[in-house]
Amino acid sequence: MGHDMQRVPSTTLSGSDSASQTVTSHMDTRHAANSQSLPNGTSQAYHDERGQPWMQNGASGGDTASSDSDAELPQVDAKMIPLSITVSRLITYAYTELVTLVDTLPARTEADRRSEILKYTDHMTDMLTKLLVLVRWAKHAPQIQKCQNAIAYLDSQNRYFDCAVDSIYAAFMSMPGVRMRNYDVGNAAEILSTGSYQRLPVAIKRAVLPPKLSKHQVRETLEAISGIIRKRILCGEPVPLAMRRYVIKNGRIVFTVPGEFEAQLTLLQYEDNIPWHIVSVRVLVAGDPLLPSEQQIAVNTRQIVEFAQQILVGASTQNQDSSVQPPQLVQLYDFLHQQ
Question: Which of 55, 143, 200, 268 is deepest in the core (most CB within 10 A)?
């Protein structure tokens, strides 16, 4: 707030002459005090056009650094009204109420006139007293303005500090993602010395198809499977009497039942209780060639192989649970013989 007062016509001050004179006398007294000589023979103080004190010898009465710092502070003018506007509005309000009172008094009784005049006087006295307090308080408005500017400056600095702290924390949280790892010297030396990396996970080998076996490796593998099949047959694998004609070669055992079927079996694993795996089944029963094609016996070999494989798997599981069930080859013969 400033403490300047606008000059208005004397007619508008009719309801507040005493308050205006008090304010004017207070301001005159202040200017007179500022124009007095300083004690102890010091130089006389003057005021420039901005109202700032200065000494006659040219030295400033205030601190130059302080004035520079005040100029750097942000000016806060929000929600503030100049004192001159307040005084002008109050005088206009008092004058308007007085004119209204003068216009309405002739129509009232004597008692009502006195009551309305008393109410107006009391009300305007309260308003002008508040204005006088406000005017006297306005002397300290520059200091209060400085405090508000300083508070606004500190608030802005606090926001800057908060932003800086948030930025530093965000940079700290993002550092692990951009941090460079140490050089893998050990594995590099191993690769350079051995030509390969020996510490790869085993799951990688499982996911990659193995290389094709050579003819020699295929021959050795088939001979090993044939030996396992021969061992299993000779070590007590029950074989039906009709399937005693068999041949073991190329990792397979071929059972031949004359006039019925020929079945080729193998083993997919080296364990004892693993069920036999059917490679193929060939039915040796042929129809009469003199019959027409509609009356020939239709044989679905693929379906027979699927059913037979299910019987072998079920027989293997039953043999593990109970020894009463027939062996695998016996159940296989019964199924194929019925077909």
Answer: 55
Sheet with strand 261-266: strands edge to edge:
246-249, 252-257, 261-266, 277-283
* Rounded Cα–Cα distance for residues 321 and 177 (Å): 57
Say which residues have a Cβ less than 8 Å from residue 151's Cβ, sequence separation at least 6. Answer: 76
Q: Which two tokens stand for residue 31?
A: 């200017």
Task: Tell the residue number behind the tokens 């059972």, with chain if given.
Answer: 255
CB of 13 within 8 A of CB of 91?
yes
The count of other CB atoms within 10 Å of the CB of residue 302 is 8
Q: What are phi and psi of 53, to 5 degrees?
A: -70, 145
The verdict on pTM exceeding 0.85 is no
Q: Which of 198, 333, 228, 324 is nearest to 278 (CA)?
A: 333
Q: What are phi and psi of 70, to 5 degrees?
A: -65, -35
User: How far is Cα 3 from Cα 141, in angstroms, rounded to an integer?
Assistant: 8
| Half-sphere exposure at residue 188, Cβ-oriented, CA atoms within 13 angstroms | 4
The answer to whether 296 and 287 have CB atoms below 8 angstroms apart is: yes
| CA end-to-end span of the chain | 115
- Give the helix ranges, DSSP H, for the chain: 17-34, 64-72, 83-104, 110-137, 141-178, 185-194, 202-207, 215-234, 301-321, 328-338
Quick one: three-class SS letters along 51-82?
Answer: CCEEECCCCECCCHHHHHHHHHCCCCCCCCCC
pLDDT digits (tens, 9 = 90+) for 123-181: 999 999 999 998 998 888 888 888 888 898 899 999 999 999 999 999 888 887 777 77
In one letter, which amino acid is 225? I
Contact 150, 73 (CB under 8 A): yes
